[in-house]
Specification:
- This protein has 3 domains: 116 residues, Orthogonal Bundle (Fumarate Reductase Iron-sulfur Protein, Chain B, domain 2), CATH 1.10.1060; 233 residues, Rossmann fold, CATH 3.40.50; 53 residues, no CATH class.
- It has 23 helices and 10 strands.
- A 6-stranded parallel beta sheet has the order 1-10-7-4-2-3, with helices on both faces. A 4-stranded mixed beta sheet has the order 8-5-6-9.
- A hairpin with a 4-residue loop joins strand 5 and strand 6.
- It is globular, with a radius of gyration of 26 Å.
- The N terminus is likely disordered.
Length: 475
């Protein structure tokens, strides 16, 4: 994978200049928005289902420590091996140790955004293990050496022509074609050999039911089922916030996730995994491991307001409707999670000092909050994190205060002082009317603003002058 610079501003400008990228996103996003709307024709039913989904997740988060203990106990009783990882490095090491003990050299992977947090494929490659993505979108971007640009449709930024040329270059003997069926068949030919011969299958987890010790996986292509059933060993990876209290809570969450993500009533495959192959069963892995990753989630959990972000069920509805994301795509965000959900997760996981730029990749229009199926107040949380970015260090958020600017503090102090005094306000605005329009656009205080906007123009006369002319008293 190419080295990432983590310069959001320049990455966004570059993306805006890519006409093909913008065309690809505009076409796909319009279709997703329309499909979602068609699957929620009754607004009352939608709001009731959103409220139920939020309540299920809030109930699970309120009991999270106890539910994680219950989940572990029931998983072990079902024959799972359970592992806990506080950090990305610890998670990678745990999985590598499992693979080495089993002498496993090849992995066939289902989709997992948590593995993207860990840069898992790159880590395995450095340690002599081959990991091949089995999800078609993930397979495409793996061939391209890229990360996902969307959490549900990783290759959404590429059109048929780009994929056809990529397959021609990367798959031996593959001729150029734009036909989707032929491209899918080409990927299938490669992947089928790995399904049958891989030493280990790997997957993410959509939900984990504490009461039954079950893992729930959703997919449309069947690759998830192949990855978790054919190899003799299955390793599942999930963030600790994915646990829910009861298996019966899965149904409404699936209904929300599928309709919100792709405009489907339900995905083609829903797998519930409750342990390894039993003695009288003919298929399934003989050994199943679950790795539970924290990676900053506990710190998020400890803040009652920011905890709401952990409700996320990874449907991507927020980014599908975001006017910023749909114009710059996912790669401009440069961390695991793009779009509005990424704007609240990345700064907290990576630290505001590293990922704080993405907090301003929002117009705060509120569409993300309106469409979120579990009612995460995304716009409010973005504003909260913007405040944390400039507060003194030592706040509850990693890197809090790192974006504090002495120049900005002086400007806002001056603004507050001027607006608190009628005399200073009139004196200051009088001078701005006289000299404001003469200020060149290139001065430091205006340069960044005017690089993408017109310079503000000050009126020659104040509203007070105009009011006096009309006989309106100044009281």
């Amino acid at each position: 994978m190419a080295q990432i610079s983590h310069d959001f501003e320049h990455a966004a400008i570059k993306a805006l200049g890519n006409k093909q990228l913008r065309t690809n996103f505009r076409r796909v996003m319009t279709g997703l928005i329309n499909k979602r709307a068609a699957l929620f024709p009754d607004p009352d039913e939608l709001q009731a289902l959103r409220a139920r989904g939020a309540a299920i997740k809030d109930r699970a988060l309120a009991k999270l420590p106890d539910l994680l203990v219950q989940l572990e106990q029931n998983l072990i009783a079902n024959g799972f091996h359970v592992h806990w990882a506080e950090s990305v490095d610890e998670g990678n090491k745990i999985i590598l140790d499992i693979l080495r003990k089993a002498n496993a050299r090849t992995i066939i992977k289902g989709k997992s955004m948590v593995s993207e947090e860990m840069h898992f494929n790159h880590f395995l490659e450095e340690n002599g293990v081959q990991a091949l993505e089995s999800d078609l979108g993930e397979y495409i971007i793996q061939l391209a050496g890229e990360g996902p640009s969307h959490i549900v449709m990783p290759a959404i930024h590429k059109n048929k022509d780009e994929i056809g040329r990529l397959f021609q270059e990367k798959i031996a003997g593959q001729p150029y074609t734009e036909d989707p069926d032929e491209l899918t068949d080409a990927a299938r030919r490669v992947l089928r050999q790995l399904f049958a011969n891989a030493d280990c299958g790997f997957s993410g987890v959509n939900f984990a039911a504490a009461d039954t010790g079950s893992l729930v996986l959703m997919s449309n292509e069947g690759n998830g089922r192949m990855s978790t059933h054919l190899p003799s060993m299955h390793i599942a990876l999930m963030g600790v916030e994915k646990v829910i209290e009861r298996l019966e809570d899965v149904a409404p969450l699936i209904s929300l996730a599928c309709r919100s993500a792709t405009g489907q009533a339900i995905t083609t495959y829903v797998n519930i995994i409750s342990g390894p192959r039993r003695g009288n069963e003919k298929d399934g892995p003989k050994e199943v491991h679950l790795v539970l990753l924290d990676n900053g989630r506990t710190k998020i959990y400890n803040d009652p307001e920011l905890r709401q972000g952990l409700r996320c069920i990874r449907c991507a509805a927020c980014m599908n409707h975001c006017p910023v994301y749909t114009r710059i795509g996912g790669h401009a965000y440069q961390y695991t999670y793009p779009g509005p959900i990424g704007e609240i997760l990345n700064p907290q996981m990576q630290g505001i000092e590293k990922a704080g730029d993405v907090l301003h990749a929002s117009s705060l229009c509120g569409r993300c909050s309106e469409v979120c199926p579990v009612k995460i107040p995304l716009a409010e949380l973005i504003v909260r994190l913007r405040r944390e970015a400039i507060r003194p260090a030592g706040t509850a958020v990693k890197g809090g205060g790192s974006r504090n600017s002495s120049v900005e503090n002086v400007v806002w102090f001056g603004w507050k002082t001027m607006y608190a005094s009628p005399l200073l306000y009139r004196w200051g605005t009088w001078w701005l009317r006289k000299i404001g329009n003469l200020l060149p656009s290139g001065i430091p205080l205006l340069k960044q603003w005017t690089s993408v906007r017109s310079k503000p123009q000050f009126a020659s006369r104040s509203i007070y002058d105009l009011a006096r002319e009309r006989g309106i008293r100044d009281e």
